[in-house]
Amino acid sequence: METIYIFGHQKPDTDSVCSSISLSYLKNQLGYKTVPRVLGHVNQEAKYALDYFNIKEPGFLNDVKIQIKNMHYNEKVIVLENSSILDVYELMQEEGVTGVAVVDQNKKLKSLATLKEIAKTIINGDKDTLNSNLTNINKSLKGEIVLQFDEEIQGRILVGSYQSATFASEIDLKNDDILIVGDRFKILDYAINSKIKLLILVGNYDLDQELLEKAKKNKINVIKTELDTYHTINNISLANYISTVIENKTSISVLDTDYRSQLLELIDKYGHTNYAVVNKNNKCLGVISINDVNNYEKLRVMLVDHNGFNQSVDGIEEAIIEEVVDHHNLLNIGTPDPINFRSMPVGCTCTIIYNMFLENHIEIPKDIAGIMLSAILSDTLLLKSVTTTDLDCQAVSALAKIAEVDVKEYGHNMIKAGFSIKGKKPEELLEEDIKTFRVGDKMVCINQIFTMDYEDIAAEADNFINKIDDLASGKFDMVVTLITDIEKNGSYVFYDRKSEEIVRDVFNDEEFSEGTYIQDLLSRKKQVVPFVIEALEKRA
Predict the structure, then answer these.
(1) What is the mean pLDDT of each run of 10 residues along the chain (540 residues)?
(2) How many whole angstroms separate alpha carbon 350 and alpha carbon 334?
(3) Residue 199: per-residue pLDDT
(4) Nearest C-alpha neighbor of 462 from the set 406, 514, 520
């Protein structure tokens, strides 16, 4: 069963993290194979909840782009460097490929052998020497080993085609020579006395007993074959090691963790048909060809606490979205096929997941109940936010009983642990909880900082505003920052300086200025985002 990854948005808050874990638990109880993941650094509040209920933090998911390991490459076309050309060619024919990976004894990639290179070797290659072993030679000649004293055979190939006297006078045989010969007693006697490396007997010729004994004594390797001299000469070159074909050749390989897009770039740049696939240790895993680029498996995912491409994992457009569970307004997630999409106007995604447990009659364990409770208390600011619904309150009451915690005490301690800004720089705070959306051609950022230490920000307000301006001068056209004082139950509003007129329209106040405090302003989703969109659309 294929694994499904469940994750929240790029800035993992308590709801995003705890929703991923809770939904994963529920889905696994229903027979799925899922794992929760996070897309970034888990904030202090979420860490507090996970530690309190002794739940491991989910692993990090960098992207869901299609990697080479998700593609269907050929794992069979790997040969040892001492394989024969014939073995490699037969494998190519069997697998219907034009390239194989050549490896050493440890499966480390040496190079790539192609059908084109083999053809060149057969037609234009050196026919006078052989570098192979007796097993390869015997197979290529469909022969029978009569005597064997060596496995490795490397030397000059000669044919006993002269008259005996001429051969003996003209050919100076050496002890690494390979002689192809038939029923030629004097040439055979001369070759055996010269202690050559290998004697190949064509036409199934058998040495007489005298020559056989002499060959044994001189430790000469002997093969006999039913082939005639002509076919023996043609076939013996196929016994050469495949390493002789790829000698001094480098090939382009891809890591199994490389992306499909990187492979396409290599194909476009080099135009090769085949590329060896290796792991980070250069161990060969197979060969991927140009014909395999559209043969792959997409990663399967479920999204929680978001439904926009710009808030999700890198490469989300390459994945199969199986399901979305969210409590935000609908954004731009699109899928080619219908999916399960669960969206409810509640204060927290975990409220929806709690109801999914009830609908499926799945018992909620204490630790899962605890983190779901944590998420709801976080997103609703201890049930004080305007986004809080009766369903959130009902879920909190039920989950607190299962988790065996006092809601008020636990919630206060969690928020206090999570929202301390002591020692944090303005740029760090601004990056912690960002929501982005597009209005026409404008990219808007609304971030929210929860704290019990507003005085620390107020003390360096000018520096804080400068950092907001820096953020707006980059990839955003407008930045609005809410500093939410949890104890006072309201928010201070900051913004980039160039957007002051728009912000005044948003809050319908001509005198609105940086750091204005608004009592009961707790939800950017309901109390800020709609009015920002309205103000920008009026100006479009």
Answers:
(1) 93 95 98 96 92 96 94 95 94 94 94 89 84 95 95 92 79 91 89 93 93 94 94 92 81 92 92 93 94 92 92 92 91 79 95 98 97 96 91 97 96 84 79 84 89 83 88 88 87 91 90 91 88 87
(2) 23
(3) 95
(4) 514
The first and second tokens of residue 425, run together, are 């720089």
Q: Helices marked H in 344-446 — which ranges?
A: 349-359, 366-379, 390-403, 407-418, 426-432
> Taking a C-beta distance cutoff of 8 angstroms, is the pair 417, 424 a contact?
no
Tokens 């609105």 sit on residue: 512
Q: 252 by DSSP, 3-state: which?
A: coil
Where in the sequence is the domain holding 462, given as residue range(s)? 426-539
Has residue 222 been placed in a domain? yes
DSSP letters of 316-370? GGGSEEEEEEE-SPP-S---SS--EEEE-SSS-HHHHHHHHHHHTTPPPPHHHHH
76 and 154 share one domain: no
State how far the Cα of 464 lies from the Cα of 367, in Å rounded to an integer: 38
The pLDDT value recorded for residue 248 is: 64
Question: In total, how many domains does the chain have?
Answer: 4
Q: Of 292, 307, 329, which residue is a domain's last?
A: 292
- For residues 57 and 47, the answer to whether their CB atoms sit within 8 Å is yes
Q: What is the dihedral of CA 34, 35, 40, 44, to 10 degrees?
A: 120
The verdict on 20 and 82 lying in the same domain is no
Q: Which of 347, 345, 344, 450 is nearest to 396 (CA)?
A: 347
Same domain, 326 and 275: no
Residue 154's nearest CA partner among 231, 250, 249, 243 is: 243
The C-alpha angle 93, 95, 101, rounded to 5 degrees, equals 95
Domain boundary among 226, 260, 277: 226
User: Which residue type does 264 have?
Assistant: L
Asked if residues 49 and 18 have their Cβ atoms less than 8 Å apart, the reply is yes
